[in-house]
Amino acid sequence: MDSKEIQELLKLINRLELAEFKYKQGDLQFSVRTKYYLTSRSGTDIMPSYGHLSAPPHVTSAPASSPSAPSTRTSAETEAEANVSTPTVPVKDNLIEIRSPIVGTFYRSASQDKPVYIKPGDIIEVGTVVCIVEAMKLFNEIESEVAGKVVKILVEDASPVEYDQLLFLIDPNG
């Protein structure tokens, strides 16, 4: 199964509003839990599981400059948790954190010859594509769920990122 077939399958799962889907063929196996599954079990809002992922703003009690702790989760747990959104809460100095919703490679632009999506000082709106995170040959455009001014980009281009790793600081009053 190639990446295009996986994308089409995920679109179909979403269109059919399935709560959960499991696939197994030979050594390839995966499962997808959609917003319908998680909403029905926990009442939590969920992000889409393909194509455009929204990066939920997050809050931590640690300073914004602290690195994230290494992940000890299995890839299946990480993929399942990548679909869960966290409530929006401002952090110290009224900055909102945008974190990676998935594990992968962080890219600031669609390709080397294209301009970066955002840079410090830019004003962004809800739905603005802020970066791409490539995971398993799928290029996921990460969209902001907050509006404001980009204060800081905390990840280098083409760097690996973990689930829930801090990517951007946004000033909602900017």
Q: What's the gist of this structure?
A:
The protein has 174 residues and is an alpha+beta fold. Helix content is 16%, strand content 33%.
Main attributes?
174 residues; alpha+beta; OB fold (Dihydrolipoamide Acetyltransferase, E2P); five-stranded mixed β-sheet; five-stranded antiparallel β-sheet; 3 helices; 33% strand; elongated
Order of helices and strands: HEEHEEHEEEEEEEE
Question: Which regions are unreliable across 5 or more consecutive residues at pLDDT < 50?
Answer: 38-52, 58-91
What is the overall shape?
A: elongated
Query: Care to count the β-strands?
Result: 12
CATH fold-type name: OB fold (Dihydrolipoamide Acetyltransferase, E2P)
Give the CA-CA distance, first to last residue: 45 Å
How many whole angstroms does the radius of gyration measure?
Answer: 16 Å
Structural class: alpha+beta
Domain count: the total is 1
Helical content (DSSP H or I, runs of 4+): 10-25%
Which CATH class is shown?
Answer: Mainly Beta
Discrete helix count = 3
Q: What strand line-up does the widest sheet have? A: 3-9-8-6-11
- The CATH architecture would be Beta Barrel
